[in-house]
Amino acid sequence: MVKHPLFVIIACAISIGAGIYLNSSYIEIFASVVGVVNVWLLARQKVINFLFGAIAVVSFMYIYFDNGLYAMVVLAALQLIFNLYGWYYWVKNKGEEDVAPTIRLSIQGYVIWTSIILISWGLWSYIQVKFTDASNPYLDALIAVIGLVAQYLLSKKILENWHLWILMNAISIVVYFSTGLYVMILLAVINLFLCIDGLLEWRQNYEVNRHRKGATGTGF
């Protein structure tokens, strides 16, 4: 059901209806709809997802700044750069496929990226508490760090990006609830389903390529 275009149409309609009912801002409703389309296209491994991703993160940048989520403003700005890079990388390395093949992190990659996330979270949280009036500095910083790493892994077509997106959406629900961004909560819930579907589809794509080529691609 999630794979069918009807799902994304219904999800967008629900986001619009909920936004109007909750008297959300137009930019919040717009960002929610574009975000749903972006993640659905990403799960389908469509390169055009990066266009919708760029539009979505610019919209989110404004929303986060307006609500004092400064780390997430930086996240959105860097995600814009990663969207442009991902677009280039997917097309450049597509080979015989429509997009670059899916690869996985090595054990070393798991250790390195886990360490990067934990250390960056601690540093970013400290900066937020010390120098800003961020409304939720610790979770805000955690979401920002996870989002940046996930976006980088996505741009390199690394399967594990989905694990991080799933975690990020779960944490985002807590942050959105505490800041009153209720239509964004709905978006995060919808994205959870889309991310799980994306994980399953990318994993299937990885297994098909692995058996076809007789080797497992890994990334840092």
Structure report:
- Helices cover 78% and strands 2% of the residues.
- The chain has 220 residues and is mainly alpha-helical.
- Strands 1-2 form a two-stranded parallel sheet.
- It is globular.
- It starts with a helix and ends with a strand.
- The mean pLDDT is 85.
Which terms summarize this structure?
two-stranded parallel ribbon, mainly alpha, 2% strand
Helix and strand topology:
Elements: H1 5-21, H2 26-43, H3 49-66, H4 70-92, E1 104-105, H5 107-131, H6 137-155, H7 161-179, H8 182-213, E2 218-219
Parallel strand pairs: 1-2
Helix pairs in contact: 1-2, 1-8, 2-3, 2-8, 3-4, 4-6, 5-6, 6-7, 7-8
Could you tell me the radius of gyration in angstroms? 17 Å
Q: Beta-strand percentage?
A: under 5%
Shape: globular
Give the SSE order as H and E letters.
Answer: HHHHEHHHHE
Mean pLDDT: 85
Share in helix: over 70%
Q: What is the number of independent domains?
A: 1
Secondary-structure-based class equals mainly alpha
Kindly report how far apart the N and C termini lie.
33 Å
Number of helices: 8
Describe the largest sheet.
Answer: 2 strands, parallel
Low-confidence stretches: none
Number of E-type strands: 2
Widest beta sheet: strand line-up: 1-2
